[in-house]
Amino acid sequence: MKIENYKTDREIEITPSYDPWDPIVSLREFGRHVLTSVEMTVTNLCNMRCEHCAVGDSLMLKEPEQIPLSVILNSLDQVENLRTISITGGEPTFRKQTVDEVIVPLLQYAKARGVRSQINSNLTLDYERYEKLLPYLDVMHISFNYTSERDFHEVGFARSGHPVQEEVAKRMYFKMIENSQKLSEAGMFISAESMINYRTHDKLPQIHRLIREMGCQRHEVHPMYAADFAEGLPVLPLEDMRTAIHSLLDARDPDLWMLFGTLPFFACNGEGEDAKLLRRLRQEPNVTVRNDPDGRNRVNVNMFTGDVYVTDFAAIPAFGNVRDMRLDDIFAEWLNNHPMNQKVNCHCDAAGCCGPNLLVADMYYKDIDFKSRKAITL
Ligand code: SF4
What we know:
TIM Barrel; ten-stranded mixed β-sheet; globular; binds iron/sulfur cluster
């Protein structure tokens, strides 16, 4: 594997002006969507069972053998324009063996190749397993939707199937905060994501303050994805979501980078409240809106089967396997021929928009044909 010859953009710092996960970056560079990002599901084990878990139905208590790491590394090696990788679960660090034998080698590969890396973790386990990632990792992505340990207990174990003691949840909550502070001090970039849903929409300013106190460098905000465990939860009306975002923008610390993603507001919705909000988001300092990478510049690879999906939520069946196809070819097939992609694969460059996330479109815009629309507010 010749990794020393790859082009690198590692010298560019990840800031509000440069977000290599945003598909608009590669779309502008190549003039078409290109596979620049690969997400890998490294485990289906997790020490929590959150109420809203978008991969909840895939979680297990015991899991099978993974396919050899060399197969995955080879297939990453064949992705011509790889810029970012993401490692996800379950809780990726649940087993120490996964950290040592899968995660660290993947991060080492990425670093050597000049590819940016992210891991999605709940950060509730012992510090040592996260500390091992420090020399290689670009972004530690955590979920934070709580105003106290009580919220954490209620939300984080809602789907456990058995009662989890308050004391146990409390210890994990404070461990997560302590880990976040320690890792930040040690130089790790921690991005805490909060979802906007029926529980959090009126508490976002408090959640934001805690994220600040945890030492995080970025606060990400996304609507809840109505997938898996979250499928039956109440859908927040768009009006409440707009109000929640305005209240957060009013109360936020303007020095902390805020990244909004998979928003259900589009520049083709016409003048009105959406346009007002989009303008505000564009004008606020240190605020960015990321286009959704899933299926635009990214695919998800399941490391147990080699199956390739458009998202780790797996609501859409796999459309290829790394054992018998190159990832670039699987992606091209999705891009050009998959009927689901044809529904949302729009692009209005002046608005910096490349269409809605599939789940968000399904939640809020069931009968809208985005391909026939154009941005009218900028
Ligand atoms: S890219 Fe699609 S969703 Fe975005 S403004 Fe244009 S038509 Fe609307």
